[in-house]
Amino acid sequence: MMINADQKELEKFSQLAHRWWDPGSDFKPLHDINPLRLEWIDRHCQLAGKSVLDVGCGGGLLSEAMCERGATVTGIDLSEKALSVARLHLLESGRQVDYRQVSAEELAAEQGSRYDVVTCMEMLEHVPDPASTVAACAALAKPGGHVFFSTINRNPKAYLFAVIGAEYVLQMLPKGTHDYARFIKPSELSRWLRNVGLDPDELRGMTYNPFTQHYALGHDTDVNYLLHSIKNV
Questions:
Q1: What is the pLDDT of residue 210?
Q2: Binding residues for S-adenosyl-L-methionine, per the UniProt record (predicted)?
Q3: Segment 95-110 mean pLDDT
Q4: Which residues contact 196 (CB under 8 A, 6 or more apart)?
Q5: Which of 50, 104, 172, 220 is buried most, with the most CB atoms less than 10 Å from its CB?
């Protein structure tokens, strides 16, 4: 099976992996948005008691947060360094997350329709074939299961805010973090979902106020957005 991954992207994030749990590091935006996305996910599916797969888990910020809410969590990623950091942090937090170095496609071929909840956050814009990742996430969810995505819209405003603003002006992210050509319109993502048996349910935007330095969920999906879907029974 061809691995749906960009080696340069993996190396880029692997080089920063040791700073994953530092809230003042390059991963500060992820620390800042983690409570928002956690509450949004939990509101839709009530995580306690659920089996959850976190696709592209990185250092485990969301994985551990969902575990703390009472879910049984498996986190998968292709970065060995990020997973090493994630496993090391479990020794500090005392939480239990099963981390595996495997792609969503490989895992889907191994064990389909297993999870109550599948999350794929801030990852689709970093893989060569995002539709393939979407299909794998759908295959891994149980019928009636919840599948969550978050990514970046593709339009001039998104380029201005997510690339020029975040990487060059505000320097919130390292230069080269995002490739505008890989940004995904909500209509495109929704089409991929429907093609693999996922019903789009709620689309929410995530905005950042540079003056208050706070993120918020709302109706503005021009830049960052989240999409909740349910697998057809």
A1: 85
A2: 37, 56, 77, 121
A3: 97
A4: 134, 135, 138, 139
A5: 104
